[in-house]
Write a structure and sequence with these properties.
The complex is a heterodimer of chains A (312) and B (116).
Chain A (H helix, E strand, L loop, with lengths): L5 H25 L8 E5 L5 E5 L1 H25 L3 H25 L12 H21 L2 H4 L5 E2 L10 E9 L1 H20 L2 H16 L2 E7 L2 E6 L6 E5 L3 E9 L1 H5 L3 E5 L2 E5 L3 E8 L4 E5 L3 H16 L1
Parallel strand pairs in A: 10-12
Antiparallel strand pairs in A: 1-2, 3-8, 4-5, 5-6, 6-7, 8-11, 9-10, 11-12
Chain B lengths: L1 E4 L7 H14 L12 H8 L3 H13 L3 E4 L3 E4 L5 H19 L4 H11 L1
Antiparallel strand pairs in B: 2-3
Helix pairs in contact in B: 1-3, 1-4, 2-3
Classes of the chains: A alpha+beta (312), B mainly alpha (116).
Chain lengths: 312, 116
């Protein structure tokens, strides 16, 4: 796994507030002679202006807010960045930037600030755009920015020329078991007390969640195999020939993969049943395959040992 | 759980599998009530016959470390504590070592008695 440069993480956290504030700031500077003095800067729910300050104050407060947000998100992102954090950063940035923008647009060329009106619909629109931007922000970050695996462990296992080795571990997902059990219980209660059909659906969803709440990860001469559930289906297989490198590291289920189960993220995919120790395989194609498993270091060392034996 | 077998060694492959599982129970990488890999799967993993794996699993059952249930596979027994597995592992290695040094079985048993 490539190591993440803190500078890139900081940039991803701190640039959105600055970029989002830019349109309002540019307009404030360009239109300084077209804005009423004072300008309307606060509005009631009916859209009429009820607070006023000078355009200069508006400029400085927009700039100050952007710098403050940039500092906060940059600092938080310095150690590790998550999709959630990036989403919040983008949404907050766009919301403050867009709000400042609509305020400037409402004031421009007004003769009397008290007559300035700002439709609440515009603010609603800014909110919608902000939420959309948050969604985009959470999606677009490249894997190396999100990678929260600054420390990985690896090495290789010494293998005799003809030795055959299999490493296998089972993992049970506590969150998925909890969700599954409560869905089954709630489903049964709903089916008996309220209505049959929705209850049965909920119980079935719970059983499905339970069925996928455990996995067996195997490393052997054929490569890496992850089999999920009591039936061992579905399963994922990375042939040894496709394995470029293997390390162990700690991953965050919600932060890095946005949830539990089979997850596809930019740069790779993973079978994620919990946060914590994981075996991270980089395929020869450059994409990663991650599986959360205890003692992943032994699995990684075995894969590396098998690769080295094939090469020699 | 790391299972290593080497055909180059004189120990039968089934016993090598049993020894690996014993050590895995001893070091805690497989816990009581946990299921071992299915015999068919493990045979495919290690590229050995299923009978070899079953021979190893039967040895572990005879030692009281695992239970073999039809249809449910091999499960580490409740009472198979890491300590117990470690003692069994030592016992096997003691026997192996004694044989390597041409100690006959009665001598070894006598030796054990004096140590008790």
């Amino acid at each position: 796994m490539s190591s993440t440069s803190p500078a890139r993480r900081i940039a991803f956290g701190s640039l959105p507030p600055l970029v989002a504030a830019l349109p309002a700031i540019v307009l404030l500077l360009a239109w300084s002679d077209r804005l009423p003095e004072p300008s309307a800067t606060h509005f009631g729910v009916d859209g009429t202006a009820d607070g006023f300050s000078s355009a200069t104050t508006l400029l400085w407060s927009s700039l100050g807010l952007a710098v403050l947000l940039a500092a906060v998100f940059g600092t938080v992102s310095a150690a590790r960045t998550t999709r959630f954090l990036l989403g919040v950063s983008w949404a907050a940035s766009v919301l403050t930037g867009a709000t400042a923008l609509v305020v400037v647009l409402a004031n421009v060329d007004a003769v009397d600030a008290s007559a300035v009106r700002l439709s609440p619909l515009l603010l609603l629109l800014a909110l919608v755009v902000a939420v959309a931007a948050g969604g985009i922000g959470a999606r677009v970050a490249p894997a190396e920015v999100l990678a929260d695996v600054p420390v990985t462990r690896g090495g290789s296992l010494d293998l005799a020329p003809d030795e055959r080795v299999a490493w296998s571990r089972t993992v049970t997902s506590a969150p998925m078991q909890a969700i599954g059990t409560s869905l089954v219980l709630a489903g049964v209660v709903v089916a008996l007390v309220v209505q049959t059909f929705p209850g049965v659906i909920a119980a079935a969803a719970g059983l499905l969640s339970l069925a996928f709440s455990s996995s067996r990860t195997t490393v052997d001469g054929r490569g890496l195999t992850v089999a999920v559930g009591p039936l061992g289906r579905p399963r994922w297989h990375v042939p040894l020939a496709d394995v470029g490198s293997a390390v162990a590291g700690d991953v965050s289920a919600l932060g890095r993969f946005g949830g539990y189960g089979y997850r596809v993220v930019p740069g790779g995919s993973g079978v994620i049943l919990r946060s914590g120790e994981a075996l991270i395989v980089t395929r020869t194609s450059g994409r990663t395959f991650t599986v959360t498993v205890d003692d992943a270091e032994t699995g990684a060392r075995l894969l590396t040992g098998l690769l080295e034996r094939t090469e020699s | 759980m790391l299972i290593r077998v080497d055909p180059a060694r004189s120990t039968p492959l089934g016993e090598q599998i049993a020894a690996s599982v014993r050590r895995a129970i001893a070091d805690g990488s497989v816990a009581p009530n946990e299921r071992l890999p299915g015999a068919r799967e493990l045979a495919a993993s290690l590229d050995v016959s299923i009978h070899t794996v079953l021979a190893g699993y039967q040895q572990l059952r005879d030692e009281g470390l695992i239970e073999l249930r039809r249809g449910r596979g091999a499960i580490v027994r409740e009472g198979a504590s890491p300590g117990r597995a470690a003692v069994l592992d030592l016992a096997r290695r003691l026997v192996e070592e004694a044989r390597r040094h041409d100690l006959d079985d009665e001598e070894l048993v006598a030796l054990l008695r004096t140590a008790l």
